């Protein structure tokens, strides 16, 4: 399945998080999803690990992978992510699966 140019989507990523994700169609490392993880909370986070699920046209999962978000995710800020995936899909679901709270900002 070839990635569509309009495949960018904002998805809920967990309580207080949201994500924008799109296929990395120009990447040379194979299929991947790139995007931004937004933190709508008043506290920052580190060691944020996300899962990206690849969805087909019917919304069914056809693959997934996990990766860490680059750096810290500041309070009311955003951080970039790059996640290799087994294949491209029609849509992508991003879920925050773990994080550590930053005690000092």
List the helices and strands and how they pair.
Layout: E1 9-14, E2 17-23, E3 32-39, E4 45-55, E5 61-68, E6 78-84, E7 91-101
Antiparallel strand pairs: 1-2, 2-3, 3-6, 4-5, 4-7
Molecular structure report:
It is a single chain. The protein is built from no helices and 7 strands. It starts with 8 loop residues before the first strand and ends with a strand. The chain has strands at residues 9-14, 17-23, 32-39, 45-55, 61-68, 78-84, 91-101. The chain has one domain: Sandwich (Immunoglobulin-like). Mean pLDDT is 88; it is low at 1-7. The protein is an all-beta fold and 105 residues long. The relative contact order is 0.31. 0% of the residues lie in helices and 55% in strands.
Brief description of this entry?
The protein is mainly β and 105 residues long. The chain has a single domain, classed as Sandwich (Immunoglobulin-like), CATH 2.60.40.10.
